[in-house]
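Technical note accompanying the year-one report. For the benefit of new consortium partners, we illustrate the data format agreed upon in the data management plan: each record pairs a sequence with a structure-token string. No post-processing was applied to the example shown here.
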Amino acid sequence: MTNRISIIRSLFIYGLCIPLAIYLGYLLANPMDRVSLGFVSAVLFLPLIPLLLRWHHVLLIVSWNMSAVLFFIPGSPYLWTFMAALSLGLTVLQHILKRNVTFATVPSVMRPLLLLAVVIIVTAKLTGGIGLHALGGDTYGGRRYITLLGAIAGYFALTSQRVPPGRGLIYVALYFLGTLTMVMDNLGRWIPSSLHFIFALFPTESPETLTWEATQGDFVRLFGITMAALGALCFTLARHGLRGVLEFREPWRYLPMRFRGGLAINQPWRLLTFLVVVFVSLMGGYRSIAIILGLTLLVLFYLEGLFRSKLMPAMVMLGFVLVVVGLPLVEKLPLMVQRSLSFLPIEVNPIARLDAEATSEWRLRIWRAVVPTIPQYLLVGKGYSINVIELERATDFSLHQGSDSGDAATLASDFHNGPLSVIIPLGIFGVIGFVWFLAASLRVLYYNYRHGEADYHRLNTFLLAYFTVRIIYFMAVFGSFHTELVVFTGLIGLSISVNGGMRRPALAKAPAPNPAYLPFRLPKVVRA
């Protein structure tokens, strides 16, 4: 009986493998289109299933901040979106089969995210559906719906498993240092043309960035390098804290990095590396990076209690020296660094200030045109569906006028303002869900900061500070809901996964009764 079953199993396997191998050979022998490439990729993906079953949670954390896309899938979705759906699906499947998989998610955060998902789906249904032009639809905007739903699914996938004890710092390094892949956006001009196929996996903003002409001019926006530097700074502060960056009491080592106990930067290289990366982050010309870094350092300075430490006088003197010595030298810095600092009341090159003010005026013009339309989309949001003809008309009108009037950005819901990017596409119910989610997340981060494990105190302090700064930045400076929701869900998901949920204060144990002070009781009478 056993031999008969083995023969039948072998025949079944050969019956599947041989036709599949013949068909794959046929596809590889002919010019491949997107569909053929997707089929071949799916077949090659099958042997990786055991690996994914074991490491899908780690791969999700690694890919969360990467710029990689799946170019062989229509629409080229981001790798993290695919991994969020795959990780959540595998977790649900394991829960159905084994019944021993428990989610570490917090109900107070889960409920507003479910409300947001319902609002997104209902809004898409009422405003023309999730249009995917990449699949032959007549509308754009479906990618934004998928990104938002992927960010929500990613939270549940991140919190589906707790990070193994003692490995939290390793996972933090994998999470934040994934942004280093974004440097590919600015390295195209130095990579030989024979290797340009790499940019199918790590795409650039535009094909012009692959040429040397893109480096010409006074203002060259290095978005990829800036975001990679921001990710490296976040890792440094999450790993060592602001106190660890500034203090030199740790033993000095010749090697700049160590890997035991999680990736770390040794002293005295830590502060030097931090300052160099800060300068690199300002080379992109983005004022937002300087604002985010400045606010994060201020909040960390307060949360870590440095204003009560011995470092306070040294910090005051260092700030005084920087103001006295650095201000006269600002105009000697590169134009992009001056543009990053142009929001401060300091003297910078007039070219840099005019370029920054032109961008600010463009945003104000968009806001003045959009704010009166809020009552129109208060109950049912505008959604993200964009008609192709209307988008072409708005773009042609801007080109005909010789300036960017902002019509195309308004039509695409790119308001460059956080509250507007929520209330107009999703209405008041989207605002309620998002504000509820932010409040619940802050509560979880605060509890983890106050009552988390000592080994993760610096990490929990940074996550609370950085999450708070991103809220302030989203509400008051710049925000785009469909691109920043993944930032918020990623940070809170990482905190819950590392801490195993929301940490609460330990309950005080009742003192053991002392027999010498037991109250007098009459003996019980046992009746026959």
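Partners are asked to follow this layout when depositing records. The chain has one domain: 57-499.
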